């Protein structure tokens, strides 16, 4: 009886995944939304059945992917099936939302790194290099167009943009990490309401205002900052590590700063619109970002938000 139920429900969930995969492959304007919805059949499967049974259906899904689409989409199915199974397993064991987020981020990171290496080594396709070349060519063409029209291009701004683009290969680890985190977060955002509608429990995040980095984070940040002042050999492992760590740590400090602003606004009973306006304004007015960054640093080392 149990095996019959497993086969029936597994077939239904695989049929749903097949539809999602076909939409992802052939309907470009819906593919972005599908990217966050595709783990759902595997999440439900993993909640209801064991890891062994879930992995069995994962293998069937891989075979089905080759039949209905192409061999090229195997990494996609492998990624969404493993992430979905991990989601479901953690939900079944009533783990926290933060733990699910970190686990899925780690899994997405493994798959994105492996996919990047696969395309670069096997298919000789380097998406990063190609996009950098396109962006650099676009900047050069804009300079030529400005010269032909007799207008003066902002050389300083364009040179800064060119240097920023050239830094992208060094920041690949950070970029892949950020992409993996965004994928994991949006997967939760899209799938969890649907999982609740199906009658399964999902954990909840604490309010954003309660986000706080540990005090020990400041020592780590300080060590990285000290290394950044050294004249490290360009493109060396240490130089790449310091640049990427600096980038990631600054983002975390910005999040800490925004959380502190939301917390202070909550304590002082300001309108909910106030911190949101500050957040939006900081993206528009560049110097405000540095103020938020400073707030993030101060709120860890000195400013105890719980004693305001």
UniProtKB/TrEMBL annotation:
Keywords linked to the UniProt accession: Membrane, Transmembrane, Transmembrane helix
Transmembrane regions listed in the UniProt entry: 7-24, 30-47, 54-80, 100-119, 175-195, 215-232, 244-264, 276-303
Top-level lineage group: Bacteria
Pfam families given in the database record: DUF2232
Keyword Transmembrane: yes
UniProt entry tagged with the keyword Isomerase: no
Name of protein: DUF2232 domain-containing protein
Taxonomic source organism: Gottfriedia luciferensis
């Amino acid at each position: 009886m149990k095996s019959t139920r497993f086969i029936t429900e597994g077939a239904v969930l695989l049929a749903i995944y097949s539809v999602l995969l076909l939409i992802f492959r052939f309907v470009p304007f819906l593919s972005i939304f599908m990217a966050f919805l595709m783990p759902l059949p595997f999440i439900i499967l993993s909640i209801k059945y064991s890891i062994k049974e879930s992995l069995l259906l994962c293998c069937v899904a891989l075979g089905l992917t080759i039949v209905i689409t192409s061999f090229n989409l195997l990494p996609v199915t492998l990624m969404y099936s493993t992430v979905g199974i991990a989601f479901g397993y953690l939900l079944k064991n009533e783990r926290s939302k933060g733990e699910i987020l970190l686990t899925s981020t780690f899994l997405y990171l493994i798959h994105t790194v492996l996919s990047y290496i696969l395309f670069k080594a096997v298919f000789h396709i380097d998406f990063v290099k190609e996009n950098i070349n396109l962006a650099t060519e676009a900047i050069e063409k804009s300079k030529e167009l400005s010269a032909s029209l007799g207008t003066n291009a902002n050389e300083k701004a364009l040179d800064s943009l060119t240097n920023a683009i050239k830094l992208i290969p060094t920041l690949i680890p950070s970029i892949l990490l950020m992409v993996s985190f965004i994928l994991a977060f949006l997967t939760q955002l899209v799938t969890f309401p649907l999982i609740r509608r199906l009658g399964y429990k999902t954990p909840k995040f604490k309010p954003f205002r309660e986000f706080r980095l540990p005090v020990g984070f400041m020592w780590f940040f300080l060590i990285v900052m000290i290394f950044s002042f050294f004249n490290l050999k360009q493109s060396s492992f240490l130089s790449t590590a310091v640049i990427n760590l600096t980038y990631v740590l600054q983002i975390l400090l910005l999040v800490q700063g925004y959380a502190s602003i939301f917390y202070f606004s909550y304590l002082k009973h300001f309108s909910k619109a106030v911190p949101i306006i500050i957040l939006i304004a900081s993206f528009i007015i560049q110097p405000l970002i540095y103020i938020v960054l400073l707030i993030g640093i101060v709120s860890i080392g000195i400013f105890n938000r719980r004693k305001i």
